[in-house]
Amino acid sequence: MTISHRGDTILALYPTTRGIGFIVMQSPLAPIDWGTRDARGKQKNAVCLKKVSSLIETHQPDAIILEDPTAEGSVRPDRIKRLCRAIASLADNQSIDVHVYARTRVQEFFKSYGAKTRHEIATIIATQVTALERFLPPHRRTWEIENPKMSIFNAAALAMTFFGAAER
């Protein structure tokens, strides 16, 4: 199913070591909902799956968009890889389409905007999607951990890549 007409809802998810970032959209410039969901403790994947299930129940998406954690060059931990497989399985069980994009595909999409790094991509998204502007974290210095809000922008980058692929 190619999502190209109004009314179709996508849920883009970006799992992290702290939980999961998400964005819900019906078009590339108009988010419906976004945020992060924390997962603490030993059963992070189970907690994340419950939170994803709740997001699915709330927003009834037609498609779920994920980053491919197994793509060449990906350095995602095994726990994140298992979580992505579990999310895809959850979506399949509910007859929701799953679209997976390698990080290189996302970078390729944003190259036309002159963005290479995650922060440059997030900055492009914040300028185009004004609702997200105030959530843009400051540029991360090498010794700092990544701001949890960056996962919202990583999810948004996946969503915009999806919409860009649907236009072609």
Structure characterization notes:
The chain is of the alpha/beta class and 168 residues long. The chain has one domain: Nucleotidyltransferase, domain 5 (2-Layer Sandwich), CATH 3.30.420.10. Strands 3-2-1-4-5 form a 5-stranded mixed beta sheet, sandwiched between helices. The protein is globular and about 40 Å long. The chain starts with 9 loop residues before the first strand and ends with a helix. The N terminus is likely disordered.
In short:
42% of the residues lie in helices and 20% in strands. Strand 2 and strand 3 (30-38) form a beta hairpin.
Helix fraction, binned, reads 40-55%
Question: How many β-strand runs?
Answer: 5
Mean pLDDT: 90
Strand content: 15-25%
**Helix count, DSSP H or I runs of 4 or more residues:** 5
CATH-derived architecture: 2-Layer Sandwich
CATH top level label: Alpha Beta
The whole-angstrom Rg is: 15 Å
Largest sheet, strands/sense/barrel: 5 strands, mixed
Structural class: alpha/beta
Describe the strand arrangement of the main beta sheet, using strand numbers.
3-2-1-4-5
**Which H/E pattern describes the elements?**
EEEHEHEHHH
Count of folded domains = 1
Oligomer: single chain
CATH topology: Nucleotidyltransferase, domain 5
Runs in which pLDDT lies below 50 for 5 or more consecutive residues are: 1-6
Shape descriptor reads globular
- Cα end-to-end separation: 14 Å
Q: Any idea what the CATH superfamily is called?
A: Ribonuclease H-like superfamily/Ribonuclease H
